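Subject: Polymerase beta nucleotidyltransferase domain-containing protein

B.,
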Amino acid sequence: MNLQAIQKRAEPIFQRYGVVQAFVFGSFARGDQSEDSDIDFLIEYASDAKKSMFDFCNLIGELQNALGRNVDVVTIKGLSPFLREVVEKEKRVIYDVKSA
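Prediction pasted inline below.
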């Protein structure tokens, strides 16, 4: 699965959950994924979005079902400062209504 296929399957899910930006990072962004690789997402919700942990878990579940792989999802606000530099270097935008 390439980034374009991920984007096509994930976009309607991001729209439903009020995500304004989404990036892939990790092995899929670098292009060195394996059969067992999960997909790492960095997302940003709309500033007025009121999302619960239940909503976040449902988002993860829908992404996993649509993509047929395990996914890890972190919000921009929840991104560890320790990981920020690495993620910023390798992230690839797959969804962006914030800049539109």
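Residues 3-96 form a domain with the Beta Polymerase; domain 2 fold (CATH 3.30.460.10).

T.
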